[in-house]
Amino acid sequence: MTYLTLGQVNIPIAWLALIIAILYSDFRSRHSDGATTKLIEHLLYTYIFIWKFSYILFSSSDFFQAPLSLIYFDGGLKGHLLALAVVAFLLYRKRELFDWEVGWMYWVRLVAIYQLIFNSFQEQWFVAGLWIFTLILIERIKSQHVLLVQFFLLMWLDGFISSFTLFHVAVLLTVYFRTKHAQYIAGAGLLSLVAMMLMDVEENITTTTRAAIDLPATTGEQYRLSDQEQSLTVVNFFATWCPPCKAEMPHLQSFADSLPMGVALIGINLTARDNGEEALTDFMETYSVTYPILRDEDDAVGKAFQVKSIPTTVLLNAQGEELERIVGPVSEEGLRQLIKKYESLLSE
């Protein structure tokens, strides 16, 4: 689960987990160096601000076509790297005022609580249990070795290019370089190699059987998914009145303009929940939609796919079975990462 759905409102689990993690770290650091705690908060908010608004810089065409997309999207990996560079510069300038013991404790608490909450919502109970264990280590032992434990877990679970892993590497290197424990840097490098090898192990792919898609397209033709010869099909359920649906349309169209080989993209308008044919026509013209749009006039497919909140994007294999779904707006980068996850199916 990526979003917590309350009616038609989608609350990103990641943001909810981050807010709780910051509040917990603030609470636990309340008796520590107040100046350091305030500086950490300033650096965190600076990081989030730059990462979020760098979307305008790195996806300017999508932003100007749909300004509301800023609410739902961010600068991605490029935004994280830019924010990390700025925060590192600010920290360097304020280094004399910074208590590193307070700093790394604040960070490891934040990481543990965030991952615990996020993985609990994902019902990854074993992983959540691992983060509970690290939180106990943090609060009882208060050893810098916890940084290495967390680094290993982040590399194994999220990969090197995730935002938490990147930031964690920066914290780890800063702490150990300051204490001149070069052997820990070598250990971190070894752990990273082990983690990357573990991540290369092929995962079992699970599927969910779904109803056949057989709907009329806006062109007047009948579209049957079973007649298509694609290995993967991205199905986007939407309505024209839905703000996040509008925000993601430029990203979907950009994805459609350069589809990976063996991948198809279709949109399913939940017509029974929408504002009529004219609204759909205007919507498609506004966003210059060129990929197939189907009309679910009696909501049969929407109900069969258990679409309760929109937008919802579902990835299907060649047999029409569901591989994965995203509730809430999806970016072009997110779609390409999703396809990459299942690229083994494209060679079959």
From TrEMBL:
The keyword Transmembrane helix applies. It comes from the Bacteria. This is TlpA family protein disulfide reductase. The chain crosses the membrane at residues 6-27, 39-58, 70-91, 124-141, 153-176. Coiled coil: none annotated. Residues 204-344 form the Thioredoxin domain. InterPro entries: AhpC/TSA (IPR000866), Thioredoxin-like_sf (IPR036249), Thioredoxin_CS (IPR017937), Thioredoxin_domain (IPR013766), Thioredoxin_ResA/DsbE_sf (IPR050553). It comes from Solibacillus faecavium. Pfam families: AhpC-TSA. Keywords: Disulfide bond, Membrane, Transmembrane, Transmembrane helix.
